[in-house]
Amino acid sequence: MPVDSQDVGQGNTNTRNRLLQAAESLFIEHGYEAMLVQEVTRRAEANSAAVNYHFGGKELLMREVLARRLNRLNIERLELLSCCEEHSGGKLDAAAILSILFVPALRLSRPPNGHPSFISLLGRVYSDTSPFIRNYLEEHYRPIFERFFEAFSRALPQMSRSELSMRLRFSLQGLAGLLAGQRVDELIFALGMGQQMSEDVLLARLIALVLPMLTDPLGTPDQVSAVRHVAGFAEAAATAADAAMQTSAASVRGRG
Question: Any idea where the domains of the chain sit in the sequence?
Fold first, then answer.
């Protein structure tokens, strides 16, 4: 099998690192399913057979991309959770637990030990719907999710486990959509509404956006009434839209 001319000694390591970086960038930009091996090798300036030579294929390449970023993140999260529980006597609220999830991620997005694209990678990981990514997360990080789920359950004892599971799923998906494709400096600019702010303020604002999805009442009578009031006008609005579309189409035909 042909390999790069540099694939010896240090050159071998350099090619491997370039492939990992290229795969990470393409995953962030396009997601796993649209990440083409040919594009990975092209962006890494590597031989077309390099992915198979170094990793044994696309899936094994992606496993290493994820492991080198997420393993350290989740170890830090677990250590931080244990530390905070110890110092609080186990009495953490939902906002504190969200902070425990976010603080290591922000730290790992800063140099010299972190990488600026880490936040956008995390957003893509949580939002990517490919079976491979979902199965990887389930296979490798289920114990970590369960540990945090129990912490949230203690913080929100009035909530059933099924409701908490649903709320956490949608909260993390919403957060992933916010983070996907964003760098820390872009997040600071967006959440600061054009004003510079510290990462502590950034984190507090992120939590303020996510926390209501975990804690606010779900489908109260007033909320249901408001939806029904709007829905009562839906049929009339649809009829008016049909008429507007017909008028627009007739106008286009008249000009033709």
Answer: 1-56, 66-218
d(CA 60, CA 204) in angstroms, rounded, equals 37
pTM of the model: 0.80
- Judged on CB neighbours under 10 Å (0-12, 13-18, 19+), 58 is middle
Task: Tell me what the mean pLDDT of segment 80-89 comes to.
Answer: 95
Statement: residue 188 has pLDDT above 90? no
CATH of 1-56, one of 3.40.50.2000, 1.25.40.390, 1.10.10.60, 3.10.350.10: 1.10.10.60
pLDDT surpassing 50 at residue 35: yes
* Cβ atoms < 10 Å from Cβ of 238: 10
Q: Round to whole Å and give the CA distance between 15 and 126.
A: 28
Place of tokens 């709320």: 167
Closest of 20, 28, 30, 31 to residue 55, by C-alpha: 20
Pair 34, 128: CB distance under 8 Å: no
